[in-house]
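Why do we care about 3D structure at all? Because function follows from shape, and shape follows, mostly, from sequence. That is the central idea of this module. The next example makes it concrete: a single protein chain, its amino acid sequence, and then its structure expressed as tokens.
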Amino acid sequence: MNLPVPRHSPWQKILCPGSLNPAALDAVKIIALLSMLVDHTNTLFLAKPEPLLYALGRMAFPLFTLIWAMNVFNNPARLQQRANRLWGWAGLTQPAFTLAFHHQMPWYALNILFVFASVTQLLALHYRLGSHGIFYGGIILAVLVIPLTPGSYGLPGLLLAASLVLMFSPAAAGWRRAGSVTAITALFCLNGMTHLISSPVDTLLFATVPTLVFPAVVVMLARDHVPDNIQRFMPRHFFYFAYAGHLLLAGMLLLWMPVRA
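And the structure:
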């Protein structure tokens, strides 16, 4: 689905859904999955997490959020169906997420699928109820901010998802510039803001800059170097199985390993 691209938005030109053919989109998904695996391996299994691996992991959530935003409006009439599927997968994944991170996060911490489920639910309510739907959806997002904060980016993550929706929604052309500004602000706040005062250089070098730069570089490389004549190669809904499966495997492995000091 090719959406109109405003000439005044450089980020919209870089990340326009029409600029990524299906195979390029799959390539971006693979990079995001590898980034997530690197990040979780670094966080869960290394006695002393490596800053460079942490930096590489910063592109996972922005890329997954970008892919979600590109696809969420493919069929607005199915928004509630999409939301239901995401709520279901978020609930099914939560035990594996808790198992994998129970030594590092509070019991109430939620996985990233709740970010996509809640914002998709807001969109579905808006589609059905108009401005009242935004109000009810906003309540859902407000309730989830705290449980999403320990492990799934909290308010900046929700703002990134919502702002990318504004950038790619065919019904929100007048809000695309605001969406671009909000997306960049959310990316800047996504990782390490609490450490900017105590460790400004390390935070900027290994968290803030990678979060801002790496996702855009990956998308531009996929756009420019994946030929249009290649068919899609990733199974449908593969991300859900990969996300839940790798967390379950990590959690089971951690049961057999000593707790890290």
